[in-house]
Amino acid sequence: EEVAKRVEVDGIQAWWDLDAKEILGDEAEQYVKVPDTLDVWFDSGSTHSSVVDVRPEFAGHAADMYLEGSDQHRGWFMSSLMISTAMKGKAPYRQVLTHGFTVDGQGRKMSKSIGNTVSPQDVMNKLGADILRLWVASTDYTGEMAVSDEILKRAADSYRRIRNTARFLLANLNGFDPAKDMVKPEEMVVLDRWAVGCAKAAQEDILKAYEAYDFHEVVQRLMRFCSVEMGSFYLDIIKDRQYTAKA
């Protein structure tokens, strides 16, 4: 307890500066002060106590989630579980979520010697940050996450499809006043009711996917709505009506 107090005040250096006689007196000769470093997994595995428990907003509750790479099942996840169970008799987290690692288009590990590394900064400079974000969101993180120029090119194409659909919809909503221009569902033509139904179904599917942390399904569902249901069908059919009907 005395050692813990000194470390809390002076940091870990207090242990190295400490003379055993200062706290053990004459009994110090019966002990050997160990300078070895404790397993690093003990430090990270005890963050539920040193980080979470000291924050009042957690009010003693476990963390909602621990997020790390798939190699941490025998690392941080395990050490945290063992230490928390020993200290508190319960797990330090409600759930864990793991992700794979980034590999090249052929499934090979990124390596400078092979020359297959992809710099996020280079991608952002060339294609923009949104393309990089969309690639991350559209990739199934439960396995290895492949990235290459061709894969990023496909992400850029998907981004343009989503953006073009949004631009078309927003452009035609210019000056729209819900109080005056809103059409009741029962007064809509069948095609418009179908489009509204598609939007509602897409919203429900996307929210469900988010709740399951199924982010790549979110992107796939959004793409189906923007590119297939809207872009290739509904928005194409209504162009004549849109451009010739009285505003």
TrEMBL record:
- Start and end of every Aminoacyl-tRNA synthetase class Ia domain? 2-147
Where would I find the Methionyl/Valyl/Leucyl/Isoleucyl-tRNA synthetase anticodon-binding domain in this sequence?
192-245
Q: Name one GO biological process term.
A: isoleucyl-tRNA aminoacylation
GO CC field: cytosol
Q: What is its EC number?
A: 6.1.1.5
GO MF entry, a single one:
ATP binding
Functional note: Catalyzes the attachment of isoleucine to tRNA(Ile). As IleRS can inadvertently accommodate and process structurally similar amino acids such as valine, to avoid such errors it has two additional distinct tRNA(Ile)-dependent editing activities. One activity is designated as 'pretransfer' editing and involves the hydrolysis of activated Val-AMP. The other activity is designated 'posttransfer' editing and involves deacylation of mischarged Val-tRNA(Ile).
Q: What is this protein called?
A: Isoleucine--tRNA ligase
Q: Which organism is it from?
A: Escherichia coli
Originating gene = ileS
